Amino acid sequence: MKVLVINSGSSSIKYQLIDMSDESVMVSGLVERIGEEVGSLTSKTFPGTDREVKTEIERPIPTHGVGLEMSIDLICKGENAVCAMDEIDVVGHRVVAGGEKFNVPVVITDDMWPDLTETERLAPLHNPANLGGAKDAIKLFPGVPQVLVFDTAFHQTIPPHAFMYALPYEYYEEDHIRRYGAHGTSHKYVANECARLMGKPVEEMNIITIHMGNGASMSAVKNGLCADTSMGLTPLEGLVMGTRSGDVDPAVHNYLAVNRGLDIAAIDNILHKESGLKGLCGMNDMRDIHAAVEKGDERAKLALDVQTYRTRKYIGSYMAVLGRVDAVVFTAGIGENDDIVRAKTIEGLEPFGMKIDPEVNGTRSKEARLISTADSAVAIWVIPTNEELAIAREAMALVK
Length: 400
Ligand code: ADP
Fold this sequence. Notes:
The structure is a single chain. The chain has 15 helices and 14 strands. The protein is α/β, with parallel strands linked by helices. The chain has an eight-stranded mixed beta sheet with strand order 5-4-3-2-1-6-8-7, sandwiched between helices. Strands 11-10-9-12-14-13 form a six-stranded mixed beta sheet, with helices on both faces. The chain is globular and about 60 Å long. The mean pLDDT is 96. Adenosine-5'-diphosphate (ADP) is lined by residues 213-215, 242, 285-287, 332-334, 337-338. Residues 213-215, 242, 285-287, 332-334, 337-338 line the site of adenosine-5'-diphosphate (ADP).
């Protein structure tokens, strides 16, 4: 069985063709700068193997539909084709927000579209593009099952006392305002991987998962199910991110409006795009921040301190949520690669049984690895996430 996984963003499409017989990646590609003067398509067949062939195309790519068609042409036609179109059995799509209705993956049927379109207001930056990708794929692959895998689905087990905001109740009933979380596919994947690596059923494990990339979120996973997560109605709440503020006093909105005469749209833009690490020190890539700290940049140091302190504070609160913590897992761009952030985050948590081994933590690797000391009561792991594989597995399971 071959599954094509599509992650369609606002101006990009990431895709992978996965052979489910051995879960190997046959093709991985990225279409970027859709709608701009010149777009690009980079595609690799059998990436990371000695059969890898890289193709790069630069030309205008006016729409996502055109980008997807170009990608499929590379996969199925021409000299580096890896399979025929009718060999693709399922297409799986990443969708950021599913609301309460879409709490499990679904095979798209025509009657779902009104409800799917409703979800767009929960993630206006992501969902229209995610669902647009599905519409394009339906045209290109008539008759092939199209599965939507929602980032919020894993968080639908969060109980009401954790997902409700203390707002007038009708905003929940009528406007559906509540905590939905995001990155759920990744949290679920690394929690399951952690259980597998520790040789225990995930149903018997309590795990704190930390997905820290440009966007960042944490989950408290109790007996294998999500009990709480740091992102909220939208992916703005919670941890300090590349350009997103994470938690702020909600009164900041009014304060900025009154003091700076900013309107809601401008404030929203600042909180999403001009805040977080970038707001604090002007840089949103952690690698640049470390380089600046080395040179004595005080703001860069502050940004690192604020970011790691916030994460540590969430670990403390999730210890309270879980009662017993078996493992902490770091994943995504920063979580997988940044030993300094990991060490600073766990620093001070030794009395709670969390101890990092500096030597193992400092050793670079692309593999999953245990970075806690032998006498650490809580196992601390670095586990590379693989959202594409997780989506492919969900899609295949559903169609089978
Ligand atoms: P997203 O999917 O949210 O865009 P990623 O999970 O790919 O993000 O993470 C991207 C971020 O990871 C970068 O912005 C950078 O801050 C960080 N990052 C990537 N590589 C490294 C590294 N070697 N050391 C520290 N940080 C890194």
